[in-house]
Design goal:
Layout: E1 11-14, H1 18-29, E2 37-40, H2 44-53, E3 57-59, H3 62-66, E4 71-74, H4 81-95, E5 98-101, H5 108-115, E6 120-125, E7 135-141, H6 147-158, E8 161-165, H7 171-180, H8 182-199, H9 204-224, H10 230-237, H11 243-253, H12 256-278
Parallel strand pairs: 1-2, 1-4, 2-3, 4-5, 5-6, 7-8
Antiparallel strand pairs: 6-7
Amino acid sequence: MTIGSGHSHHIAFVGAGNMASSIIGGLLASGHPADRISAADPFPASLERLRESAPVAVYNDNTEAVASADVIVLAVKPQIIAEAANSIAATVSANGAVVISIAAGVTIASIQARLGPKAAIVRSMPNTPALLRCGASGLFANEASTDQQRDFSQAILSAVGMTFWVKSEQELDAVTALSGSGPAYFFLFMEAMIDAGQQLGLDREDATNLALQTGFGASRMALEQKDVDLVELRRRVTSPGGTTERAIRSFEQDGLHDVVARAMIAAADRAAEMAREMG
């Protein structure tokens, strides 16, 4: 189901921060009518920024924003998800709206406890490149969600990048560890490359430009040549006895794969901890 075809769902956002603004921008670019989108936020500055970028209805009150919505996106911080869910519970029940939560570490069960056992809930974990509409989002839906609600929920997140369904809610912890937190790993690696470039004599601006462009180019090559395994792409850059081989050998001697695995396990464990803390 595409956003712009058929019945135009009324999509309401509870929270109007960066992620909500990005998804709204993606929806508008995909053809969803602006008059079928609303957003609520307690901070006037957030609403003003959204209003400057998108001609959608904005409110200070959650209840007003979701009044006629059949899709509600909870785009608030985990710490206030309970309050936000309580504010929309009556509307969800009356409208039969599907609720999409993008709050990290908040389980469907904890949201359902506030919305009722019949509430259709889709939990998603988008990442910050969604701001540029090149994000990656994992999704999981509860049994109360219909096929149509799942399809439309996926279409909404697809407006800001790639999407896929996970087989269990627990797998969202792995998605969080890989793609949710992943951009920071790449930023850290590029920081290290820039620092090393300076140690080798480059000025910081040149080292930065080289690192950023190299990261962009490598990612684009991998994306556009998906039929070629990453190991093969790496082999093509690694001439026997050359400079790249020497660097790769150094990475392997230092246990790069183990370092990455330990970091991602730590991130996944923290995601599970957050779910228990919120639960």
